[in-house]
Amino acid sequence: MTRGISRALMGTTALCVTWIGASPAMAQDMAEGPAGFLGTITLQESKRDVRTDTATAITEIDETEIKDRQAGTVAELIDSVPGVNLVNGTRAQGSGINIRGFGATGTYGTDQKVLIQVDGVTRGSEELYRIGNQLFTDPALYKQVEVIRGTVGSFEYGSGVVGGAVLLETKDASDFTGGEPGFAFRQMLEFSTNGEGIANSSILAWQPTEKLEFLVNYTNRQLGIQEDGDGNPINPAGGDINDPSYMVKGKLTFGADDAHSLTASYTNTDSTQYNVPYDAFGLGTGFGFVDRETSSETAMLRYGYNPAGNDLVDLSLQFSYANEEIMQTPVPGTPPFLVGLIGADHKYETTTVTLKNRSYFDTGPVAHNLVSGMEYIYRKRLDASSAPGGDDNRWAFFLIDEMAFGGGWTVTPAVRYETSDISGTTAPNNGQFSNEALMGGVSVRYAFGNGISVFGSAAYTEVLPPIDDLDNVARVSTTEKSRTFEIGAAYEGQDLFSSGDTLSLKANIYDTELWDVTSYVSATPMGQQLLDEVHTQGIEVEGSYAMQNGFYTDVNATITEAEQTDAVFVTQDWGLQAGNSLRVTVGKKWGDALDLSWETEMNESVTNTFGYTPGYAVHNLRATVAPKEGVWEGTEFRVGVENLFDQNYRTPLMSPGRRATGRNFKVTIAKAF
Q: Per its record, what are the GO molecular function terms (predicted)?
């Protein structure tokens, strides 16, 4: 059986409360009187909060943590989320995102079971052989990343979400101007010792008026050949990385009570590598070498309508376009039989139109938070060797209703209906195929009123075939099916061991089954055969504790077991399980000006598709200094030491010949003007 645990800690929000929870006005009145006011108690925060207010397994990484982690890729940023693992480490061109045992594999950049969106724009490649990555973009562009694990919270965003979803939100000009007319500028420089990395990010924000804002961001990252803990080069044939990214974004608010808004954005990330292995997921050079240029761009235009005093209408109509291109040229001397495969250019475009509305209303004693919408998705893929081209037209309708019954009960049913019409562009893969699926789930949560809550959910989804399956009639005509059950409990309290302290705990058990499998194969006595079933199970535990003196600690643990059953009904361990893990962070804050923390990541030994991975423990140190006054006001200094003891290790979903990065010192300096 497969048991994969994925749990989340979320960006904590500082909280100020007064005695007996008085409102600010009441607190002021009490402060003006001679008696009764006992002062303001500030509840401290940890690196991440635990989302105890929902039955969905969700982790939120806020902008502060994005900066503190000094990540070079989005994949590297979110690998700290329980249940999230990277296939082949953190290289921009060679890592993939895997959640709860699904997503990137050692062969493809995606199995279509992990969804990625940027500002509501769906991203990610088809099943590109040996090269596909789900997300080419820079973390400096974002102010928030949400990671949903499992299926139950995904129906608003897409179908086939078995492992989870990654939702990224880009920065806005008002985040830097404070919503006031004027200019703001922020410059960041970052240096890393392992691989002699250099990154710079420049952000210019301008608000001509309170209702109009513009933002421009340019980021460039350069990284050489990194070394493992023993000083050996990691993938020396992989070449240097030079990845420029930029974003332009604007927003206009207009109409009575600012009910109308228009938001437009464009992001682009380019990467060029010369004489690198075609196989970006491993050290193997059996597929030859190529010069590879990767370009990823996203455009979005959104209209919003939220009239004042009308709780039934919070409408958005969004048009989006994503284009991802991989251009490859075999190096001189490539054997002729490889030229067709490794010289193929790949291009896939996704155009989406989404109409969505959120309504708040009551039906008797039940309060509703209803999200409804419809979506048109058009994906076009260029025909290439071993990657059939074609078109995929999809229509989707979804409905999610969060119903609060009072007395602590919340019930959230969700449903999504989606159709798909695929047509090939080139013989012999030029057939036409139609599929449809009705998916849905329900979550139930009960809060006892004393900080304790219990919850459970059940969800069913289907993975509609991608264009890549056009070369196999059986696969392109079959949808993969999945169901997930989850149960858990949570606690949140304050003033438990000392005045102003906070404690949050959450434990979750899940069970996922995938059948009618078309994505994975296994060696059987009859040769390579599709799997019959994949079954994953897991326990997730997360906790967060913070004291008024600034001390904090975060803990999350993942315990997983997983199994696969092949076509001749032989059962064995699931090839993509990452094993049991524990992550602990201990730190101390001195207001908002200084934050020191130590983090350890531990993983038990595991055997999977990538072979045997011994257990390991890796330690990281981080320090953030952000003066709030004087000549250094507005300046942020960050120092990080990753893999402090220079461990030579391999993560569970890393090719046997590749090792993780050795000790790496990082220094970041940022200044806001």
A: siderophore uptake transmembrane transporter activity
